[in-house]
Predict the 3D structure of the following.
Amino acid sequence: MTNQPQTHKYHPPRLAPAQIRLLERLCNACAISGDEGEVRKIVLEQVRGYLKTSGRPGDVKTDALGNVLVTLPGKTSGSVPRLRVMLDAHMDEVGFMITKDDGKGIFRFEIVGGIDLRQLPGKPVWIGEKHTPGAIGVKPIHLTRRDETKKLIDLDTLRIDAGPGSNSIKVGDRATFASSFTRLGPSLRGKALDDRLGVAILIELIKTAPDNIDLLAAFTVQEEVGARGAKVAAYTFNPDLAIAIDSTPAYDLPTWDGSENAVYNCRLGAGPAIYLADSATLADPRLVRHLVDTAESLGIPYQIRQPGGGGTDAGAIHRQRAGIPSISVSVPGRYHHSFASISRLADWQNTLGLLQAALIHLPADLLSRDREQ
Amino acid sequence: MKSLIQKLVETPSPSGREENIRQVIRLEVESYADDLRTDALGNLIARKGQVSQGGSKVMLAAHIDEIGVIVTHIDEKGFLRFTTIGGVRPTTCLGGRVRFLNGQLGVIGSERIDDPGKLPNFENLYIDIGASQRSEVAIRVGDMAVFDRPFLDLGDRLVSKAMDDRIGAAVLVETLHQWQPSPHQVFFVFSVQEEVGLRGATTAAFGVDPDLGLAVDVTGTGDTPKGLKMEVSLGKGPTIKVRDGGMISDPRLVDWMVRTAENARIPYQLEVLEGGTTDARAMQLTRSGVPAGCVSIPCRYVHSPSEMVDYNDVQNAVRLLLELLSKPIQL
Amino acid sequence: MINILPFLKKLVTAPGLSGHEAPIRKIIEEAWSPLTDELGVSRLGSLHGLRRGTASEPRQSVLLAAHMDAIGLMVTGISDGFLRVTQVGGVDPRILPGQPVIVHGREDLPGLVVQPSPRLLPSKYQEDPVPTEYLLVDTGLLPSRVKRLVRLGDLVSFAQLPLETGSETLTGHSLDNRVSVAALTCCLQELQHRLHTWDVWAVATVQEEVTLGGAFTSAFQLKPTLAIAVDVTFASGPGSPEHQTYPLGEGPTLGWGPNIHPALSKAFQELAKRLEIPHVVEAIPENSGTDAIALQVTAEGIPSMVIGIPLRYMHTPVEMVSMKDITRAGRLLAEFITSLDSNFIEKLSWEEQPG
């Protein structure tokens, strides 16, 4: 640990109503991969607003793919160069694209990003800029043979129905589950918690950016279709290290036969999930140690995400240029990539808290240590 | 060279945790290299020579990571569940032994599979370190282990886990040890995380920015009973790769390598591998492009704990590399 | 002035499988030489043709990419004079039995892909389609001669000569993606009589069918302001689903989706409407399956577009294209290029996008 003054007992960051409202706006915004405009608008407004009112020097721009890239130089005296730290959260969500107009308000569609086909039947959707309501309908059970109910409903037979006479929808429009953000006691429910929770955290980290680092924030596009935005954002920033802030599935439900659940991935309520390994990245051990040490010494709840599976923007980031030490930290959530996901507010707060502490306590010589000790 | 090979294959270092093998190789090369550095992902890069008349900046890559397993869960009774690092198959796990990086040894066991025709998946497997309950287990979620088999010298044939690609690393070390005057500047890259997607070579190639690149890795053979239909055999020489599942070698490089081998009377085989790829693919796609090829060591039972190579093929690979580096490269 | 039909027929009869594009590059080089200010070759073998714009330096540039590599087969072994082969690029093995091919050994040898009699195949394949690994190529020559002339790694391309089929269509192999090379050539020809302020890089890329290697590396080297991939798309026809295909002969398709910059797509749509060039918008939900996958995410990112030329029976030796669609695509590209001015870049700002 660095020679910081003795730190106080950790309290999760306080949550103002404005922050919940921001989360609500972000989750309800429709921004499918390649069409992130609604979220980009909110991000730009938040970040530019902050820079204006705080007077803090910083730069905000959008790049060729639509990533929002924010540079906040730190402020230190002395000759030791500040670490250039990239933080990343993706603006896009999974959803649908209208691919053919069958006439009379009925449209064929394709899935953008990974969605289990079994999540589609019988759901309401919002289509296009205007969030025009529609539905993914299914044949009534009365007209369905018993053996048919055992068969998967093919994407080929599904349609989005916006009702007869809808004429504002065109081929190429995107659609998403019509799922509104809501609070359920200690939990948040909504669509696109993956990764609007990360976007909200990153906005807050910008507003509380410490002086000891140069903060390079990337609000990326197209993570759900291959971490494409992150690839170019990392190439542009060429940081010293990177932290991807995402959401990771919690499979912490009872198993079908009551046996011990050995494949939970992470658990709701157990704090930010630190990644050691997923299918796209083997986390830099120095960053793992720093995050774990920070959490342990300050008493911040945290958990280790089970190794294997999944992937985040870190997968693209660490392979850029001559290599960028990277790690991912995620807010746990159940039922990602379905009509609605559920996360705990406390996990969101503690993920923010852990990252705030980790940045403040980031030793300037972290990367000159050997990768493994 | 056999003791070098043994030292390298017996060092436990799965993808992402290459510190052990990096240290072993560092000791082998530091007094021979003009410059030695470790980059951001852990690639060990040894530079040798200067570019002179007609010479080029050449990158040679052999990966030092090996496949392994990583712990995902410790159950109440002290059994460890795991997932894989790199291309591990369930069939090579059954009854296998693993060694954790802290020295702990264990056995891989399997749940009962009801259908006799079915093979177990990784979800059915676990590691047994001899504990009776969770509290006795000092291993944690995220700890990694490699397969544990000692090196076997059968004369011409050598057997071990991690021949893929410690044998390539040995070839590079030996080539550096036997370095002769060359018009080229050569970067010997001992790359990391190849088994999980050529990650180290991708970033090393960007950093080195070579004029051309050669990987040294293992390839399969077609010389076992009812095996792969492949024209490569153990003992008939190192191969000159024409293509594999992920890249097509630059034909000009292939021609140059064939001519060189024939003129120097070094035995070689041509290789077409239908599955799998090597660091050469990563080098080829770097920056504005790098003409790339690969010298492969034929290997039986790849990605099993008992990979078998022919010692003569290995020595001839060293001879071939030295011959290739001794003169300017005419593409 | 190049007549496109004979040029295209020449393009498809020249071999140029992925990774071995030298023969086809030579032909394109000859055609592009009078149409460009400079010609160069990338380290992986892509052809770069530059037409300089009239604006003062530093000039913005647009890169047009058409992959010149084609799919085919490669020799993996020789048994008793018969050749065993594997695929280079994606070939449906069901189209292989009985196909005439050329084996590019020490000489070019005519050959035939043959499906051995069921009695010589595993019991599984008595009636089911036979995988490539069990098919053979028979050159008709004796084993000793084959051994001298053919070796492991030699390439095998389709021998089918192009056929001029009805309503100005052409049928043959390698139309994927030589038709786009032809379209680029039309565009360059059109530009000979026009002024354009931006630099134009016409790039015949290598290895699209295997690694997108040409697109990644040429984009990195040339770092254009914009990139347009021209490739074939699926034309409606027997056996292909109606909803995933586009009509043959009714114009090129203009891509729309995450792999394409929406402002570029809109600019092309407006231009095509204004010039009354028939076209269809092609909704591409994820990656486009073209060089644009690589072009868009090279270095700091490049605003990209995809132009599709409808093609029936893609990746078979009887691919079918409408010549009109090729010339339309070429003309649309030329018109787009001549319309580019220094203000165009502002249209690409994401902050101007509605919503």
